[in-house]
């Protein structure tokens, strides 16, 4: 799920050589509201046909994980260099120093 337009995300995934690893991509263009607006996360839950509490957003942006949590999702924060959780951010269920760390925590839940 991205704030990018559909054509941009499709191009980015293709350029990275990972487009075939995704069943779908979701763009906030469908609701004309950028994340962290709740409408973006609500659209994601509807498109996936899954209750918000059953979903987990994995992101390296504190505003994105806080937005997901506010919309009833679970969240995992990837603390890449320069990315930090602030004192006013919602606390994600999982936090790790890199994607491998976060994925390991998700798989052992």
What is this structure, in a nutshell?
It is built from 4 helices and 3 strands, in the order H-H-E-H-E-E-H.
Tell me what the structure shows.
The chain is an alpha/beta fold and 109 residues long. It has 4 helices and 3 strands. It has helices at 6-16, 38-48, 62-70, 99-107, and strands spanning 56-59, 74-78, 94-96. The chain has a 3-stranded parallel sheet, with helices on both faces. The mean pLDDT is 97.
Comma- or semicolon-separated keywords:
37% helix, alpha/beta, Rossmann fold, three-stranded parallel β-sheet, 109 residues
Topology:
Elements: H1 6-16, H2 38-48, E1 56-59, H3 62-70, E2 74-78, E3 94-96, H4 99-107
Parallel strand pairs: 1-2, 2-3
Radius of gyration: 14 Å
Mean pLDDT: 97
Globular, elongated, flat, extended or rod-shaped: what is the shape? globular
Percentage of residues in strands:
5-15%
- Distance N terminus to C terminus? 23 Å
Tally of distinct domains = 1
Strands across the major sheet, in which order? Answer: 1-2-3
Number of helices: 4
What is CATH's topology name?
A: Rossmann fold
Largest sheet: 3 strands, parallel
CATH level 1 class label: Alpha Beta
| Pattern of helices and strands | HHEHEEH
CATH architecture name: 3-Layer(aba) Sandwich
Number of strands: 3
- SS content category: alpha/beta
Find the CATH superfamily: HAD superfamily/HAD-like
Overall helicity:
25-40%
């Amino acid at each position: 799920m991205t704030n990018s337009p559909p054509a941009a995300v499709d191009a980015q995934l293709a350029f990275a050589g990972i487009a075939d690893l995704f069943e779908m991509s979701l763009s906030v263009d469908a609701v004309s509201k950028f994340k962290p607006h709740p409408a973006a996360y609500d659209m994601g839950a509807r498109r996936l046909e899954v209750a918000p509490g059953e979903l987990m957003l994995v992101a390296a942006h504190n505003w994105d994980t806080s937005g997901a949590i506010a919309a009833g999702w679970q969240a995992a924060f990837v603390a890449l260099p320069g990315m930090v959780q602030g004192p006013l951010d919602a606390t994600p269920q999982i936090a790790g120093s890199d994607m491998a760390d976060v994925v390991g925590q998700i798989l052992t839940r």
